[in-house]
């Protein structure tokens, strides 16, 4: 009996090639290729794959789609407006951004160091930050086919991000309203940040974590009987699942930090794909999907003035965060089994996250400023609190355009029938640097090793 079970497990192994690939796109690196299963996997087959991707650089695109410094995707930090309208400002913040005379008259005119702030379109007082990013990702995928093309799967990305070599550049005059910009940044800003609740103002960031896990179920199938006899096959899949947060949220009191995933938001993930064999060794494919996030109440850093810009905000309050949906669409052309087990493709990927909406839940936030505005005449001066906090570039979404290159080799052709054979693949994700918004333009390179195992017992 023991020998019979051993034969069932060992000699019942079989392998099929699989071009299936998955990614949970993020703004700080190029989205990876997402593909289609090569053919219907046998019932009860198990797929295990491990991928490794890495990239580094300093290129980025801002909200206008223009090339920008790495930490300038949300605009330059405007030091002249940084501390405007902070409720109950501290001893370091109040003298710089509050005019006692204007405040006594209920006049909320923006003020910095003894005079009105520079015009919004003036470069004076604006500082853009640059740096470098180094990131890698290990993707672990487990997929179990059940019957009639149905399957369930789990995907867990282990991610690492390092931000370093942080520098800055003053875009305007050396001094603003008599305040030397460089002296302010080095001698006064650290104390102001700490006064407003920042606990980590280091000029570097490093974190390794599993941000979330995807658990999903789906169906995949293939057909060689098509409406056109010149077409070779049609393969496809549909999948729906849930994203389960694992890592903690981004620390709002850390000056330089990025969430490695979706910042601990729960979500529904749905995707579909199709591939059509148009010639003996040529196919075209498409993949589309969406990640739909659930709203949550959170305490976050917020704008206190609609014209503030940059990645650093001193305001902080509770708000309902309606995180925007994420969409991705890709297409590719594939040459299959060109030489023995070698296949290759080139594709294009478009990823877009909509604008996140915030609904302020803290009545004390901007209370004094709101009262001053309401008392002003004429009323068109009035800007609601929600309008102010939702003017933040950090919540206006992002998009990326990427060219994906993928090459794989299926070793099954070199082994006898019913023996196992792995598939190894190489991938290169190249951002289209003339496109994209509020995203880092970082090349990614790496590979995947995959094994499909079928059990005959």
Task: Give the helix/strand layout.
Elements: H1 2-10, E1 46-57, E2 60-61, E3 67-68, E4 77-78, H2 94-97, H3 100-104, E5 111-112, E6 115-116, E7 126-145, E8 150-170, E9 175-176, E10 179-180, H4 181-195, E11 205-209, E12 212-223, E13 233-245, E14 267-277, E15 282-293, E16 296-302, E17 315-322, E18 326-339, E19 342-353, E20 357-360, H5 367-375, H6 385-389, E21 398-410, E22 423-431, E23 439-440, E24 444-453
Antiparallel strand pairs: 1-7, 1-24, 2-3, 2-23, 4-7, 5-6, 7-8, 8-11, 8-12, 9-10, 12-13, 13-14, 14-15, 15-18, 16-17, 17-20, 18-19, 19-21, 21-22, 22-24
Describe this structure in words.
10% of the residues lie in helices and 44% in strands. The chain is mainly beta and 457 residues long. The chain has one domain (2-75, 130-168, 208-453): Porin (Beta Barrel). The strands form 5 sheets. A 12-stranded antiparallel barrel has the order 1-7-8-12-13-14-15-18-19-21-22-24. Strands 3-2-23 form a 3-stranded antiparallel β-sheet, with no helix packed on it. A hairpin with a 4-residue loop joins strand 7 (126-145) and strand 8. It is elongated, with a radius of gyration of 27 Å. Mean pLDDT is 87; it is low at 1-19.
> How would the global form be characterised?
elongated
| Radius of gyration from the alpha-carbon trace, in angstroms | 27 Å
Percent of sequence in beta strands: 35-45%
Q: How many helix segments?
A: 6
**Helix content estimate:** 10-25%
Alpha-carbon distance between the two ends: 13 Å
Give the CATH superfamily.
monomeric porin ompg
Strand order of the largest sheet: 1-7-8-12-13-14-15-18-19-21-22-24
CATH architecture: Beta Barrel
**CATH third-level topology:** Porin
* SSE sequence, one letter per element: HEEEEHHEEEEEEHEEEEEEEEEEHHEEEE
Mean pLDDT: 87
Largest sheet geometry:
12 strands, antiparallel, barrel
In the predicted model, the low-confidence regions spanning at least 5 consecutive residues are 1-19
């Amino acid at each position: 009996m023991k020998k019979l079970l051993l034969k069932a497990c060992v000699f019942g192994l079989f392998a099929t090639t699989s071009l299936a690939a998955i990614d949970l796109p993020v703004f700080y690196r190029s989205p990876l290729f997402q593909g289609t299963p090569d053919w219907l996997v046998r019932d009860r087959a198990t797929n295990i794959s491990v991928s490794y991707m890495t990239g580094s650089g300093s290129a980025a695109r801002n909200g206008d789609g223009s090339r920008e410094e790495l930490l300038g995707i949300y605009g330059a930090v405007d030091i002249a407006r940084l501390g405007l309208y902070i409720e109950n400002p501290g001893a370091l913040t109040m003298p710089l951004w509050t005019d006692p005379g204007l405040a006594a008259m209920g006049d909320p005119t923006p003020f910095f160091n003894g005079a009105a702030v520079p015009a919004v379109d003036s470069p004076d007082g604006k500082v853009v930050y640059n740096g470098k990013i180094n990131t890698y990702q290990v993707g672990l995928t487990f997929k179990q086919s059940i019957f009639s093309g149905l399957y369930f799967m789990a995907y867990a990305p282990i991610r690492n991000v390092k931000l370093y070599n942080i520098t800055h550049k003053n875009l305007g005059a050396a001094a603003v309203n008599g305040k030397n910009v460089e002296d302010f940044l080095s001698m006064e800003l650290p104390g102001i940040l700490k006064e407003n609740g920042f606990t980590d103002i280091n000029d570097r960031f490093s974190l390794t974590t599993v941000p979330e896990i995807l658990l999903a179920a789906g169906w995949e199938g293939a057909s060689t009987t098509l409406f056109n006899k010149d077409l070779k096959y049609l393969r496809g899949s549909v999948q729906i699942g849930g994203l389960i947060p694992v890592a903690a949220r981004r620390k709002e009191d850390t000056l330089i930090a990025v969430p490695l995933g979706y910042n601990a938001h729960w979500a529904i993930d749905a995707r579909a794909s199709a591939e059509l064999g148009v010639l003996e060794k040529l196919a075209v494919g498409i993949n589309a999907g969406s990640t739909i996030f659930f709203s949550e109440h959170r305490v976050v850093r917020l704008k206190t003035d609609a014209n503030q810009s940059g990645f650093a905000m001193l305001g902080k309050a509770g708000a309902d965060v309606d995180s925007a949906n994420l969409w991705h669409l890709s297409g590719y052309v594939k040459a299959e089994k060109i030489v023995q087990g070698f296949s290759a493709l080139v594709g294009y990927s478009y990823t877009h996250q909509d604008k996140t909406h915030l609904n302020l839940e803290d009545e004390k936030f901007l209370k004094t400023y709101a009262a001053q505005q309401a008392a002003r005449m004429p009323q068109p001066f009035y800007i609601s609190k929600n309008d102010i906090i939702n003017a933040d570039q950090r919540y206006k979404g992002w998009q990326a355009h990427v060219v994906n290159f993928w090459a794989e080799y299926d070793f099954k052709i070199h082994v006898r029938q019913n023996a196992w054979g792995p598939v190894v693949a190489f991938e290169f994700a190249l951002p289209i640097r003339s496109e994209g918004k509020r995203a880092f333009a970082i090349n990614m390179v790496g590979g995947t090793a995959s094994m499909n195992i079928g059990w005959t017992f």
